[in-house]
Amino acid sequence: AVEYSLAKLWESWGVEPDAVMGHSVGEYVAACVAGVFSLEDGLKLIAARAKLMDSVPREGSMAAVFASRDEVEEAIKQYNGRVSVATVNGPKMIVISGFKPEVAKAVASFKAKKTRCVALNTSNAFHSAVMEPILDKFEKIASGITYGEPFTPLVLNRTAKICDASSIPD
Fold first, then answer.
1. Per-residue pLDDT tens for 49-86?
2. Is 146:126 a contact under the CB 8 Å cutoff?
3. Helix axes 25-34 and 2-12, enclosed angle (nearest 10)
4. Separation CA 75–CA 9 (nearest Å)
5. CA nearest to 107, candidates 149, 127, 32, 97
6. Is 87 helix (H, G, I), strand (E, B) or coil?
7. C-beta atoms surrounding 46 within 10 Å
8. Distance between CA 94 and CA 50 in Å, rounded?
9. pLDDT above 80: residue 156
10. DSSP line for 41-76
11. Which residues partner with 118 through β-bridges?
12. Taking CA 147 as the corner, what is the angle to CA 141 and CA 150, rounded to the nearest 5 degrees?
């Protein structure tokens, strides 16, 4: 709500972005601001996402790891998808997410190597395999939304692909 309101305020002042981008929930705002779907459809998606995430058992956790993506990916490979890179916030600031026991082991192994880690206080292990039980339900809800060509280029967070008037993200 805050992000969308700010975008509309800036728009009322004549500020027009060359492109928009968001992370996680912010991706919905960016898509809405870009014209991919209506505010009402964006709110439907956000509400459904929240409800579905609330249904996921609290068996996951997240942690910030101050190491390179390559280092982190190499270290978590042994957990066979039960720990994953959730976000890359900088060259040496990676967030991992996954099932609590494996995230705890990964954090312990990073700390043993003197790599700084910070546990994140989150309700869920976002952007990880912990969320897989809700994907089909969310896909069904998302398939009922009307998607359109963005009138402002939209940078997709996961791939950095730019969606413009020639492409419709789904």
1. 999 999 998 999 999 999 999 999 999 999 999 999 99
2. no
3. 30
4. 44
5. 97
6. strand
7. 15
8. 24
9. yes
10. HHHHHHHHHHHHHHHS-S-EEEEEE-S-HHHHHHHH
11. 64
12. 145
> The dihedral of CA 88, 94, 95, 98: what is its sign?
positive
Q: What is the mean pLDDT of the chain?
A: 94
The residue to which tokens 């898509």 are assigned: 31
- Cα separation, 169 vs 156, in Å, equals 9
What is the residue type of 162? I
**Rounded-to-integer distance, Cα 34 and Cα 37, Å:** 8
What pLDDT shows up at residue 163?
Answer: 87
CB distance 27 to 13 below 8 Å: no
Own/partner long-range contacts of 71-77 (Cβ < 8 Å, ≥24 apart): 71/115, 72/96, 75/106, 75/109, 75/110, 76/106
Burial class (CB in 10 A: 0-12, 13-18, 19+), 130: buried
Structure tokens at 6: 């700010």
Rounded Cα distance between 129 and 1, Å, is 28
The CA-CA-CA angle for residues 49, 102, 51, to 5°, reads 10
Residue type, 157: N
